[in-house]
Amino acid sequence: DIQLTQSPSFLSASVGDRVTITCRASQGISSYLAWYQQKPGKAPKLLIYAASTLQSGVPSRFSGSGSGTEFTLTISSLQPEDFATYYCQQVKSYPLTFGGGTKVEIK
Amino acid sequence: EVQLVESGGGLVQPGGSLRLSCAASGFTFSDRYMDWVRQAPGKGLEWVGRSRNKVNNYATEYAASVKGRFTVSRDDSKNSLYLQMNSLETEDTAVYYCTRGIYYSSGWYHDHWGQGTLVTVSS
Question: Which of A33, A69, A75, B47 is 20 to 30 A from B21, comparing alpha carbons?
């Protein structure tokens, strides 16, 4: 199985900060990676797919990059509504797997 | 508007069975891969299983933790996805989400999620 390791697992930041979350895969997954945002008590929401493609309706302050084994999700200027938990997921091979999550909280 | 509405969750004893349903609307159901993803209380996301689309003969895939116990099926005439869960264990306690797949460059991603249904396995 492909393991995904997210770092950090917890992040404290202020509104307006630039935030970067990393996802490392245990083996190469090309660009078969997605990022999801989840707020408490809500279903996850797709932000980025194919490593860098912004899902329709997602603000442009979100961006994704990387390929192979290392990927990043960047929020260029953190907004109050961005405080949430973020997950990466690989869809290269079965079983599909998620990273452990990164919780972004208000400093 | 795409809608996915799960139902069928509840309290069940260890060793018991439960069938979850997901009613889909707002898109051509038969064209899409559909998945189940679960989340144990206070934990992260875990992919459970997949039903491919009609073109791919509705073939299924499962996580190792549920293979042989859970079955994903669908009825395109009813725009519905199902998860039959047998031999339930306390570790299966979770919110179960139905998701729709979006295809891009050889990969299928979860672009819409239902609100989830809670399954509690306890004696």
Answer: A33
> Which of left, alpha, beta for B57 (phi over 0: left; psi -120 to 50: alpha)?
left
Tell me if A50 sits within 8 A of B107, measured CB to CB. yes
- Helix, strand, coil proportions of chain A in percent (round to 5)? 5, 50, 50
Rg (C-alpha) for chain B, rounded Å, is: 14
Angle at B102 between CA A70 and CA B111, to 5 degrees: 80
With cut-offs at 50, 70 and 90, classify the pLDDT of residue A107: confident
Question: pLDDT tens, A34-51?
Answer: 999 999 999 999 999 999
Query: Which residue from A1, A21, A2, A17 is spatially nearest to A102, judged by alpha carbons?
Result: A21
For B91-121, how does the pLDDT look when each residue is reduced to its tens digit (9 = 90+)? 999 999 999 999 998 899 999 999 999 999 9
Residue with tokens 């990387």: A66
- Report residue B82 as tokens: 């199902």
Q: For residue A91, what are the contacts with CB-CB under 8 A and spacing of at least 6? A: A32, A33, A34, B107, B108, B109
Q: How far apart are the C-alpha atoms of B55 and B43, rounded to whole Å?
A: 35
- Give residue ranges of A with CB < 8 Å to any B CB: 1, 31-32, 34, 36, 38, 43-46, 49-50, 53, 55, 87, 89, 91-92, 94-101
